[in-house]
């Protein structure tokens, strides 16, 4: 099957500093691809290049078939992106945020009406629909932010540490949403610091100081590193990192 993300020796330099160093990988349609690395490993920088938000220094990459140098507008139309800083408007209500983003994505009024209802029911936000997003707990904001990022049924959704700062139950609920969109054929590219979440991914890559040091399914990685858990695999690789504090 044709890969939806292809990167070949993709690099990003900031002055003399190499934030991302010749990373190469492919992601298949519908795959949940975990992108791991310690703080400062280069995950966000790599993700921003793949989302068409930052031009690479060298190497090649295509996302949904579009070139990350020349076709950034097409890439943006075909992906969803949930950044560490939410893109939701805190001073708009839940419903207003959904309508606002649906409008940006060019959904018809009918489509938007139907999608807003489905989404609010799915997230159990019936009583919060008319409340300001700023008043919601973090876990709900995360789920809403994710749901909004896939409102236009993109080919790929990029999630940058989507579950930071919430409890394990809330994170598990978030992952139920991830599985639902993956079942619809949307490819999920997700960074996380939580190793239980790494176990939920189909494949996982681990970045150390700008380079991808391992990439495989969680069972195969555990086998490769003679480890009992992804925690151990990660520790084995990341303990040598110079950048993480
Ligand atoms: N615009 C920039 N100018 C200079 N250095 C940068 C810039 N953006 C990122 N860096 C550096 O590149 C390295 C990789 O940063 P990046 O944010 O991609 O890491 P990360 O793996 O996403 O980390 P975190 O988990 O903390 O978000 C860091 O050392 C960071 O300081």
TrEMBL record:
Query: Which PROSITE patterns is this protein grouped with?
Result: ABC_TRANSPORTER_2 (PS50893)
InterPro entries, A to Z: AAA+_ATPase (IPR003593), ABC_transporter-like_ATP-bd (IPR003439), P-loop_NTPase (IPR027417)
Taxonomic superkingdom:
Bacteria
- Any idea which UniProt keywords this protein has? ATP-binding, Nucleotide-binding
Which GO terms fall under molecular function for this chain's record? ATP binding; ATP hydrolysis activity
Q: Where is the signal peptide?
A: none
> What is the name attached to this protein's record?
ABC transporter
Q: Which organism is it from?
A: Solitalea longa
């Amino acid at each position: 099957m044709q890969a939806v993300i292809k990167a070949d020796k993709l690099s990003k330099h900031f002055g003399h500093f190499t934030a991302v160093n010749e990373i190469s990988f492919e992601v298949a349609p519908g795959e949940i691809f975990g992108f791991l690395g310690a703080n400062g490993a280069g995950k966000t920088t790599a993700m921003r290049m793949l989302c068409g938000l930052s031009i690479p220094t060298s190497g090649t990459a295509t996302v949904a078939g579009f070139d990350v140098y020349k076709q950034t507008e097409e890439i943006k139309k075909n992906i969803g992106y949930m950044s560490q800083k939410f893109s939701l408007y805190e001073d708009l209500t839940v419903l207003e945020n959904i309508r606002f983003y649906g409008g940006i994505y060019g959904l018809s009024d009918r489509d938007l009406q139907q999608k807003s209802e489905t989404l609010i029911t799915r997230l159990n936000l019936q009583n919060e629909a008319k409340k300001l997003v700023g008043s919601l707990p973090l876990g709900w904001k995360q789920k809403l932010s994710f749901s909004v990022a896939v409102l236009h049924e993109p080919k790929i959704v990029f999630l940058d540490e989507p579950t930071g700062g919430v409890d394990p139950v809330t994170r598990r609920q978030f992952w139920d949403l991830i599985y639902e969109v993956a079942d619809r054929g949307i490819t999920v590219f997700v960074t996380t610091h939580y190793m239980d979440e790494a176990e939920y991914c189909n494949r996982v890559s681990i970045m150390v100081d700008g380079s991808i040091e391992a990439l495989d399914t969680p069972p195969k990685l555990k086998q490769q590193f003679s480890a009992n858990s992804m925690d151990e695999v990660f520790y084995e690789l990341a303990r040598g990192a110079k950048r993480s504090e």
